[in-house]
Every structure is written in C-alpha cells, then in structure tokens.
Amino acid sequence: MIAHILATLLPVFLIAGSGALYGRFRTPNIKSLNTLNMELFVPLLVFAVLADRQAPLADYAWLAFGAAAVVLGSGLVLWPLVAWLKLDIKTFLPPMMFNNTGNMGVPLLVLAFGEAALPAAVVVFIVEMMLHFSVGLYMINPRTSMWHILRMPIVAASMAGLLVNMSGAALPGWLLEAMHMLGGVSIPLMLFALGVRLLEVDLSDWRTGLLGALLCPLSGLLIALPLMWLLPLEPLQLAVLLIFSALPPAVLNYLVAEQFKLAPQKVASLVLIGNLGSLIVMPLTLAATFAWVYAPL
Q1: Is the pTM of this model over 0.90?
Q2: What are phi and psi of 278, to 5 degrees?
Q3: Contact 202, 112 (CB under 8 A)
Q4: How far apart are CA 1 and CA 6, in angstroms?
Q5: Mean pLDDT, rounded, for 257-270
Q6: Cα separation of 173 and 206, whole Å?
Q7: CB count in 10 Å sphere of residue 163
C-alpha cells in the first residue's frame, strides 16, 4: 500500500516541482499557458469524456450530487465559524469550498485508480468548476451575469458533451481519439502550472493559511463521510468522493481574488499553505481509501 501511495503522489509532486524549478530560473508566460489549457485542452478533455458513450452519465448522477453536496456543504458548515472568527467571508470561504480538482484532483485520481477513474474524476471536476463559476462568482460579485458564465469554454463543452451523451449519438472513433489526445495534455500542464503559480505567492499571512489548510479538508470530509453511507455509490465512486473532499484549495481562488481585488495576498497564503498541507493530508486520505474503500490491485 505504501508503494502504491508513493506511486500515486510522487508523479503529482514531481511534475508540480518541475514547474516550480523551471519557474525559479525562467519567467514562463504561465498566464497564456493557463488560458490555452482552460480554453482548449480542458474543454476538449471534458467534452470527449462526456460524449464517449462508453461512460454512461446516468451511472454518475449520485456522485455528481455528492460532489455538489461536499462543495456547498463545506461552505455552510464553515460559515458560522468564519463569522465568529470575524474573517472576511468573501476572502476565506470560497477557497474552503472550491478545491484543487483540476490541478491536483484529476491527475491524482487517474494515477491512484487508473483510467477507469477518469469519467468519475471529470464529473467531480465539472461539478466543482460549474459551482465555482456560478455560486462562487455570485458570492464574490452578485452582479455576475448568467450569460458570462455560459460563454466560458468549459461550461459550453460540458453542456455539449452532456447533450451528445444523452442523445445517444455515436461520434467517430478517430474524432474522440484526437480529442482525448489533446485533452490529455491538460493534466500534466495543470500540475506544471500549479508549480509555477505557487512561486508567486508568499507566506505573509501564514496564520490564516494554516487555519485554511486544516479547515478545507476537514470540512469536506465532514460532509463526505456520512454521504458515503447514505448514497448508493460503487467502491470506485466512493473512493473518488473521499479523495475529492480532502483536496486543498484551488489555485483559481487566487486568480479570482486577484481579479476582483479581494485581499489576494491572504488568498495566496490559503492556497499555498493548503497545497503544502496536502503533503500530509493526501497520503493519509489515500491510505484510508485503500484500506477501507478501494483496495489497490
């Protein structure tokens, strides 16, 4: 089991570390890379997985519900605590709700459970992203328009993939294969970009970051654990939900805070320390998952 955990986590941190090392000596235009990834490679991956009839989406409805419950439930659980501690809700709460499913979650789940986990990983990624670009943006700016959300490539790709899957239309194999190949670029690129981005933040507000590193996985697990007993999920989907609930804050929270000028330094500390904290949290979560939910082959 230890060997499997190491085999799962080491590629994740090695690729992210490569990004950090490269970014330390060079100044890559990571914004352009992230734009290319989020506007082309990730939407292609999402569309290809959703449109592939070999992955019937009806089988993932309860998983999608569980992922949404984890995202929204962790926010509801932490809201009174955040208010009691007199922290800025717009600054602190979104990073606790919207986790690093794209940069860390999807690669980690595929490495841990193989390609069979990719549809489930994409489903929880889509749920997290759509909630982030709807509920998350509304929390920060209630004037965000629905048209702006629908125009986002990942949202459009998700809707198109869902329509193709539900319609029963079979896309040509060569087209799906090309989309899968291009979409596959997104996973290592997410990790590489994560490493570069983490160099841009600082530890000036380390106390808030340390609190977030504890509360983010704790609140997610607090919601996920009872759901694992209540929802009719197969072992692989249970494992995906458990890993999803323990992921650290998404780097996107920092980018959004920077865009809306909402204390980006504090959010940066939440993201950086939370992702560093995952060095402890994720091995423990993987060990529990392999021991009690989904034993590695």
Answers
A1: no
A2: -65, -15
A3: no
A4: 9
A5: 74
A6: 50
A7: 12
- For 206-220, write each residue's pLDDT tens digit: 788 899 999 999 999
Q: How far from each other are the two terminal CA atoms of the chain, in whole angstroms? A: 10
| Residue 296 to residue 146: CA distance in whole angstroms | 42
Question: What mean pLDDT comes out for the span 93-110?
Answer: 88
**Residue whose entry in the numeric block shows the structure tokens 């330390």:** 24
Task: Please state, in angstroms and rounded to a whole number, the distance separating the CA atoms of residues 182 and 88.
Answer: 40
**Domain span including residue 276:** 1-293
The pLDDT assigned to 222 comes to 96
What digits encode the pLDDT tens for the residues 23-59? 888 888 877 887 888 788 888 988 887 787 655 667 8
- The Cα-based distances of 281 to 15, 20, 117, 155, 194 in angstroms read 19, 21, 21, 30, 18
Domain CATH for 269: 1.20.1530.20
Could you give the number of structural domains in the chain? Answer: 1
Q: How far apart are CA 141 and CA 50, in angstroms?
A: 30
Please tell me the distance from the alpha carbon of residue 100 to that of residue 253, in angstroms, as a whole number: 9
Q: Is 95 helix (H, G, I), strand (E, B) or coil?
A: helix
% residues pLDDT > 90 (the chain): 29
Half-sphere exposure of 279 (CA within 13 A, CB side): 8
